[in-house]
User: Fold these one by one.
Assistant:
Number 1:
Amino acid sequence: MKAFLIAVVAAVVLATGASFLLAENQRFAYQAFATSGARVSDPGTNLVGPRWTGDIKEPGKAGHKAEAGS
Amino acid sequence: MARMKFLCDADRCIECNACVTACKNEHEVPWGINRRRVITLNDGKPGERSVSMACMHCTDAPCAAVCPVNCFYTTADAVVLHSKDLCIGCGYCFYACPFGAPQYPRVGNFGSRGKMDKCTYCSGGPEVDLSVAEYEKYGSNRLAEGKLPLCAEMCSTKSLLAGDGEMIAQIYKERVIKRGYGSGAWGWKTAYRETIAI
Amino acid sequence: MPMRRLTSLFLLAATLALTVPAVAQVRAPDGAPNPTASSVNEEMLFKQDPKIHGRISIPNATAANLIQPQGREWREFRESWMPWIGALAVLGMIVALGLFYFTRGRIRLEHSEESGKKILRFNSFERFSHWMTATCFIVLSLSGLNYIFGKRLLMPLIGPEAFATLAQYGKYAHIYLAWPFMLGVLFMLVLWIKDNIPGKIDWIWLKQGGGLLGDAHPSAGRFNAGQKMVFWMVVGFGFAMGATGIMMIFPFAATDINGMQIMQVIHSLIGVVFIAGILAHIYIGSLGMEGAYDAMGSGEVDLAWAKVHHDLWVKEQQAKTASGPQLGRGQVPAE
């Protein structure tokens, strides 16, 4: 039982470790598939929001266009 | 309802990439993500042709079939859209897509790969039409405003055609008959299982 | 001189006569040159190569593929074949085990004068490695099956939103728990490979039905032929799942889209067979045989059980320790 519990804990710890290690090696599309040639602002502030989730902190900025169109 | 399609007349495309730029600007598409792209075949050789390609909004779309969370749906205009709220970023649609349309915010296929992004035929997503939430996730909804996709609308040589399949096929047919040649509707056979017979 | 000029003129005329009709053929009806005559077209390119590839100006080389219709075959496999193959493998094994249970029944512990005495079968590190791999495997198999059956079985029950959230966490679990799983497989390979080399004795064990199909108890070392098969299945499938999975976790690192389609096919096919195999392993290690679970539970098995099922191993162990391997409950080795 003890070995089993340690095994479960170890699996969770290793999986968490793997998630951090993998996240370190994760690359954004803007790093991989875009050149720095014509950037005028920081990447990730458009459309999908800074965290690339679709949640934008300031909805007014991105939303004015859509509101104007409706 | 119309059956919306894209048609790229490769004999007119001059690889100016205006369609790509128009798309990126209209929808504020992030860097590195290309909902539309221009591919040049036989580059630098005689008979070189460029084709503008995006999601073709296939009939019986393979992406929708393989999606493990069924996040795709087809609108009344036969546009293939998806819900970013349901998408888990597994990459299966990218395996299935013949046109390489699905894009992801991150490269590695681990947890935080992000939500898939692709051409919406300028018609947003499952959110309320023209809402802020829809704009933030999918970009603008020109179809709801009664306009066609911007890439085709502003194509400088009118190479890229968007609209009802039969209508754009008719325009293309007339062109081919008038000028006497045409290299065909690229991708139609794969996307719609039909070609334009002239 | 004039004769020579005449000859060359004649030659020129002959050449023109031969070439002019050919040029005329590639002209449009109004006499304009036809640029498509020499241009590429879809049909021709598909004859040269199964996918149409060009040049692209964005720094994403994989976007240079214009059309690659191979996804259709992959879709056919994933949507039309895989659900049936998966259901057949998993449900087939459950039915087979059920039938076995109701015909053969639970294999009972045979009592002898040595019943009650214990012998250490798996030390704590062996049990740790086993359970780490096992817990990861269960989560991996459930989240893996979710990719195939989730939208068919679970989604109609709990609704798309709840299902998408569950599938998202399932995907995280699948990708992150894969690493301790692979480590566990590696540990078990190192720990047990020396006891799992196939030999003549395994052939005899198999011919006698392994004690599963009859009342015979063919002799076996630390692991019998059945257990060796489980071991090699776990190692082989484990490595295959790891290799194909890593290629999907890192898109385009080693293969292109077609490669990843094949990796997904291999991954899913091996996956369901692996699940079926492990179901049988779970059955015989718990419900199917009395006394077997203790080996991985407490690590100590009943000496009577060990003598019946792993006679050669018990002899070996008893020869190793002069005092005999019998350990009382209180004398558990350092854990």
Number 2:
Amino acid sequence: MEKEPKDTRVVVGMSGGVDSSVAALLLKEQGYDVVGIFMKNWDDTDEFGVCTATEDFEDVVRVCNQLDIPYYSVNFEKQYWDKVFTYFLDEYKSGRTPNPDVMCNKEIKFKAFLDHAMSLGADYLATGHYARVREQNGQYQMLRGVDDNKDQTYFLNQLSQDVLSKVMFPLGEIPKKEVREIAKQHGLATATKKDSTGICFIGERNFKEFLSEYLPAQPGKMTTMAGEVKGNHDGLMYYTIGQRHGLGIGGSGEPWFVIGKNLKENVLYVGQGFDNDHLYSDALEATDLNWIQEVNLEEPLECTAKFRYRQKDSAVKVYPIGNGEVRVEFAQSERAITPGQAVVFYDGDVCLGGGTIDRVLKNESYIEHLA
Amino acid sequence: MDHIYLDHAATTPVHPEVVKEMVPVLEGIFGNPSSVHHYGRQARKILDQARSTIAHSIGANEKEIVFTSGGTEADNMALLGVARQEQHKGKHIITTSVEHHATLRTAEYLEKQGFEVTYLPVDKNGFISITDLENNLREDTILVSVMYVNNEVGSIQPIQDIGELLKEHQAYFHTDAVQAYGLLSIDVNQLGVDLLSTSAHKIYGPKGIGFLYVREGIQLEPTQYGGEQERKRRAGTENTAAVKGFQAAVELVNNEREGRNHQYNSFKTIFMQGLKEKGVSFTINGDSQHTVSSIINLSFPGTNVESLLTNFDLSGIAASSGSACTAGSVEPSHVLSAMYGSNDERTTNSIRFSFGIANDEEQVKTSAEKVADIVNRLTR
């Protein structure tokens, strides 16, 4: 028999932001036994002993006191370093563009943190993610959040059935604008707090500077695909496929873009025009596949996919190619497919799962400079 | 849910008798004790009476008691006051690695100001060695500060032996007696201490009041400037009602100390018996003999402080640990690190339970059961 809300303990992962604050508020209003927990994954203490976590935790404390729920904190710095940050550096070392948020959800928020919540006698773990969970005949589906602009299923593509059976996303049915409104109406301390941007451990800092603290930069040549030298680059890891800014190539004609990398020769390929032909591909191959629900791959799976966050879906066909990997063929050629990023599959609003983009193809052959 | 308070070493509930004594002062005696009129004298009288009771409680005279805002201020006043006053005689200070942060952080500040500080190590039971202290004493040592009772593990340091050793040395002897006052019988002359810190809220008095005992004849450079209160040693209008409450708390101690010690010791026994009956594996941090009755620090192998404390609180058990874990940062206990080494797992899986008048036997039994269930669940 289902438990009453008051007998159902829900641990809410609270970051000190408006989203998780409202998530906690809504659950409290629904009568759940709500417990707020702040998670610390990264130590950014500066020379004055100040760290952003202290400020964020203060906000968690204020909101929890307003909601009259207990609050605690937990530290996953070690797990984060081992499982997320190491992966993050390794990917950059191999010339790819990692997605630490996907990894953080998989390994920290919905693994280490979920385990912690369960050890506290929780029935569910809730977060302020914009996504929905639906149960159908004992199977769990993950659906996009109703606010299309905020939908975060892209980052949650690695969640399993077991995890989904234990999570709640109270904001999935609400547009972001309304979340702010609710926070304001209730006078929550975080109602007008700015949303955090960027990768959590880098925050507002300069990305290049941050990365250079951990990885040695190897400057090299910047050339066209034909080999014409256009200048020097500061280190391949600082550039992403399709990037326009920061190349410093002057002259007449169309603007210049990053169109690829040659890790072996330490060369950054550049080309002119947003729609430069070299940026386009018609298929990709993905690894680390996670299917949230069972999919039948005996026939090519026709669905839609996202290759980066906040991008419109594209029609694709998915074929298994062994080793649990898949080839994804695009209905129309796609610009700037980036190895290391996630490819996430959808059937309408249902997120089917996803994987990591590993290789990019054009006319049935691998594109070396996008590998 | 019923909540059980096992964190008396952090702070204590104000005793009803203390409240009773404070209320008339809050309601009717508002004068400034320094004022030269009727209202001022009324307030001053309360200060004088309290000072007398409190001085007698440690074998001191009234002139030797300086009221402060609590233990932290008293520790700061002792260290900074001596250091600044005596720096012409030397700039060496000796303390221990297991002091309260009120002492440690002040010592670290003094290091930045050019003083040299020796932090004595402790053994596995939390005790310093007298020989060690003797070997570290120098001609330019101006202050030795050793806490009487450790706030995390309850170990009682050999204060009288230290006092004896320092008799013939120029260094002043300060002891932070915040956790000792109210549980141990204290006589400053017998102990041979020159400075001694206490706090009211650890002995069922109000927060915001404490005192520093300063042996007659010792000059301290003040740490704050203003009026001439407390014989020019601590500027600022006295907190009359809190002083009255402190006096009431001390009077209660004078009558109840032995009874309390007896009761807390039996709580300790019952608590550990309860854990053993449920098959919990634990070890005691610190000494089982030279320790105060109210504090017990236990290590639960295979657990961690965050999970334990959160689970305890969600089950209504209020305890704490020496590891600070606010805002998600886990600082392993500096006391347990000093005792066992910083890599020892006991520094991150130990909990301090501290008993007090808020408890009865039934509560102690219940809490042992709850603690046992949680530990067993986490280590299963």
Number 3:
Amino acid sequence: MSILVNRDTRVICQGITGKVGEFHTRGCLEYGTRMVGGVTPGKGGESVAGLPVFDTVAEARDATGANATMIFVPPAFAADAILEAVAAGIELVIAITEGIPVLDMARVLPVVQASRSRLVGPNCPGVITPGECKIGIMPGYIHTPGHVGVMSRSGTLTYEAVWQLTQLGHGQSTCVGLGGDPLVGSSFIDILSLFQADPDTHAILMMGEIGGSAEEEAAAYVKAHVTKPVAAFIAGRTAPPGKRMGHAGAIISGGKGTAAAKLEALRDAGIEVADSPADMGAALVRAMGRAKR
Amino acid sequence: MKIHEFQAKDLLRAAGVPVLAGRVARTPDEAAAAFTALGTPVCAVKAQIHAGGRGKGKIVGSEQRGVELAKSADDARRIAAGLLGKTLVTIQTGPAGQTVRRVFVESGCAIDRELYCAVLVDRRVGSPVLIASTAGGMDIEEVAAKTPELILSEPFDPDRGLASYQARLLAAKLNLPAASWRHAETFFRRLCAAFVSLDASLLEVNPLVLAKDGTLVALDAKMTFDDNALFRHKDVSALRDEAEEEPAETRAAAAGLSYVKLDGTIGCLVNGAGLAMSTMDLVKLHGGEPANFLDVGGGADVKQVTEAFRIILSDPHVKAILVNIFGGIMRCTTIATALVEASKSVGFTVPLVVRLEGTEVAEGKRILSESGTAIVTADGLTDAAKKVVAASKA
């Protein structure tokens, strides 16, 4: 078991004929993901990495039985690509694209919420169930199958955490990149509820960052609904207010979104906090040890 | 991207949002002429910098505030002379302050009450919201912290805009006289429409004024734009004032790098925003002070990495550099080659500590050790942090 994706997930790539889309489609194929096709308007009938290319998502779904899509469409057109995937009834829509205007996402989110589709991202590394299915840009080899659920707002920080877990001998059930933008399709809470319900996930490691209040809301949810051990790290303790730290979402504004407030909320919810980014894997091990006592 | 108050007011005026008449001046004489041309008994002379808190802020070395009232052309000239070319320190500029290059001379207005309103994207609601408060002219963050019940909020769909009833609801809760409700409807709906049509990320009017004649006027205006949407707003992009921005940050943006200057002594070069923030935290945790945030991104090439080093080294306070790369898509061999080439072409004057992990790490480390460049390699995050902090203090 796992969440969101497994060996049976049938995946298409929107933007497969672009350089980045093709590169990562090949990467996912090499990992063993069941890539079944791609979509680029106007390039239907072509073939990329041995996969058929379609003009529309609806055609691709009808022809391949795809139930997931990863989106590499350029930012100006990415919101439309998400809407197309949702309209075609694709169950899992993973938007990798970075730089989508925030108001475009404000237009997209209500449509996603009213549908049966789930959106992960945008501006995220993707989702991986180690040994079964990788949808996104993360390096596959750092992962190992196991029972820790990992979720994060940041890409390379997730790799760091996964690498620490793997070296400590703790594999992962599923790793989910939520994305670094202010408006994203799935929140910590959405994924927490899936991890809590998944019998194969025994503990949860989350990486948050400054800005917004997603971590505080996650902490409140953990306190009320999660029985599994949880550990967390918050990036940006040293970030000054008013400065955007790379991610559009990572900014302390109006005294809100500070690391201190987030850490306090996490600790208050009984979550094991890693003080150093070198300590993320170890914090998860501590959380599991504490739960056993 | 930020713009000046006078630019924001031009945009609001074009969108039909009531603002007062005003003129920009670059010299004291221009300010005096602006006063005369406006023809009102009182004008406000306002420093134009990319930071708020100007009314309470002070010019370095004098008692002059960033915003003062002029009752004559001579007054306007004197106030402008006290601002132009001087450094204004406000709660938002930091202790270094910002140089005032322009003033905005604006007509006066008969004020009945001062209110607050702003449009921004609320992450929890997932849509833009109009927020308003009766506590105008004050530090709204303090109001939000101490008396959150005074902050009203109305979410709206970007395409449908703010509904008339929502505007009336706010007008009633703000205790505006019924005669002013239709003005409030126009003001709030047009303000929200301007926010959406310009892809703003913040549009703040503080104070929003209920004038004695019952109309609403934006007495101040602060606008920030979504950088990701600037591609479809060439007219807004043209308003960029690079003189107000940190030169190194502008240079980094041109090279496709994300760089934020900080006050410490340890330069950081990292791939990925989250890891870059965490690396700063790590440096601090081990007793050092980061000199910058720098994310080279996922697919940086030799040219970009070289430029990143040049930018870091252009900060005279940097005493050591920490490179922290978790190779995923970016191979460690690529970054190692770039490091070696950059060290040859840039010429390092400070110690360089490198921590590599991930794709092709062994080969990457070999490239570094065989290059003969003076690079300190580190195993793991903690080792890297300790080494760079020690190097910065040596």
